[in-house]
């Protein structure tokens, strides 16, 4: 009690000093004294926040036992889970701040199930001692009131929210809830004031509420303008359909200014960009019908593109053939679309490519057309012609958007065709011109293989060593190290003759500098820990993101990943760290903190994974790597092809495997159970390995693309399994196999017993 009283006394002194810095002084302050006052106020403010952060940390430590119960409640929301958290709250009545977190957890859990009336009494109990989470309690309580049709109570709870919580991340959300409550009470003017203060940056839900408030205030022109902005500039927002309905209703009684042509173009372009081309096509049809003669070519091309991307290829092709050649870049764009839409007609594609070569040899549309033609020939298994198109693309557009890819493919196809000199030149260009490209490490490896085949072991060793050093744990770096060991070079340093002159391309990227320490006096960081303890993980992440943006550095990224992992959201943790370290595979284990590596390569469900891997004679690190690639350890993952769970099994495959494993009463929903999914997935992988005589790369390719495709690909001749992998025609499958092999090595390095 003495410590708490002392803290309260210090807070009181600080507040008094802050509010009355010159108590008793009667003279007018000078400019210098004003500046000093501002500095003092800033220092006092920082000290107050520091003290609040320390108090929040005490509450966090005191409520640590709540976290697993709260997380279980958020996941299951069973009567037992509710009872456990309520028991915690009652047992901690003498520590009201910790108890408040439990009441908040119960109230929030009820809102997740839309049980708003049930949430209210728990959130009210949380209010008195919510401390640093008072803004969260007020917001969720008001939301529960609003969704229980008690608008006056919702508005009352949130009145003055911004003044009470000037730094709250919920400021805009709270304004929206309060404004909605004011609108329900027909107090549109108050709603307008609230919403206008929170319009930047634009948010569709706030804009929709503001439009309705303006309409309620009879500001019909302004309301229509806002609804149009939502519908035409935010077409995929959930509020877009409601805004359109509001416009239609408003236009029945009021004169509404038609949207500009530019707004309509913007909506259609956004729909195409975000893969809703079928919704864009009707808009482009209307725009084309109304277009001036000068705008018709551009609108025709836009409509053709939307039709093509939404499955209307025949109509798009007919439209483009009837269209007069507009010349220039528009003409090049038209010819590119004709190339894409004419595939696989070799004669027509060749004709359009010839026209582009003559009329637009430097156009980016010609580059795209060459890529389309090359890919067409690849699909037809005409590698020679495909290689020529890739070669032309690489020569004409070395700095183009896909110049690095074209160079690699031209070199690889030359290698496969036995044109060794052309392959050498392309591989060397890849190393020198595109050292940061995804294919650069492959270029070092395969150029080293060519050196070996030319009986030049010194050059081969140099290339392998440079590639291995430059690209860390990349798939081809692993192969380069393996090749060096096979050459007996594992411990023998390179001789001076074998060493190449170092250049910038040989220098690996510097790893990011992660701090694993939370700034002790950072209030947002401490709020995030409190939110984590009561199961509000998504809100905790938001606080950490804001804290990181305010302070800089990577500490918040590490903390976010840890929070997500601790909450069982391993896939979100992995993606967070991938964004922060996009070239993580270029680093060795010593380059990043252990916590970061464990976030990138977690081991959840390890006991059943080891057990079922062992039962099927599989390396558990291989199984972990496969799961990481398939679902990133999200047991609820369902793919567009309806593959389910950790190891992404199709229900039909799961049913067959369940019969073998004698899983009783099997249904596809059981694939969401991690234990069953791992049991059946490891059995499936074992079957594939047996089918391909233990060759992992074949089995992995079949796991991803199916055995029939792998059997067809194996009909070609290859030097070895590595050439097969690089020759897989499906980019997704090729990268899938390489990633699992690479990541198996990472798991082994991180977790193997010395």
Query: How is the CATH topology of the domain at 61-262 named?
Result: Serine Threonine Protein Phosphatase 5, Tetratricopeptide repeat
Rg from Cα: 32 Å
What's the main sheet like? none
Query: Which structural category do the helix and sheet elements fall into?
Result: mainly alpha
What's the N-to-C terminus distance?
Answer: 50 Å
Poorly predicted segments: 1-27
Which percent range fits the helix content?
A: 55-70%
CATH architecture of the domain at 61-262: Alpha Horseshoe
CATH class of the domain at 61-262: Mainly Alpha
Name the overall outline.
globular
How many beta strands in the DSSP annotation? 0
Number of helices: 40
What is the quaternary state of this protein?
single chain
Rounded mean pLDDT is 92
In what range is the share of β-strand residues? under 5%
CATH superfamily of the domain at 61-262: Tetratricopeptide repeat domain
Folded structure, characterized:
This protein has 754 residues and is an all-alpha fold. Among the domains are: 61-262, Serine Threonine Protein Phosphatase 5, Tetratricopeptide repeat, CATH 1.25.40; 325-419, Serine Threonine Protein Phosphatase 5, Tetratricopeptide repeat (Alpha Horseshoe); 438-492, no CATH class; 606-751, Orthogonal Bundle (Lysozyme). It is built from 40 helices and no strands. It has helices spanning 2-19, 31-62, 66-76, 79-91, 96-112, 116-127, 134-147, 151-158, 161-164, 171-184, 188-196, 204-216, 220-233, 240-251, 261-273, 277-290, 296-309, 313-322, 328-342, 346-359, 364-379, 383-396, 403-417, 420-433, 440-453, 457-470, 475-486, 523-533, 537-551, 555-566, 570-580, 594-600, 606-615, 620-630, 651-661, 674-691, 696-705, 707-713, 721-727, 731-751. The longest helix is centred in the N-terminal third of the chain and has 32 residues, at 31-62. The model is unreliable at 1-27 (pLDDT under 50).
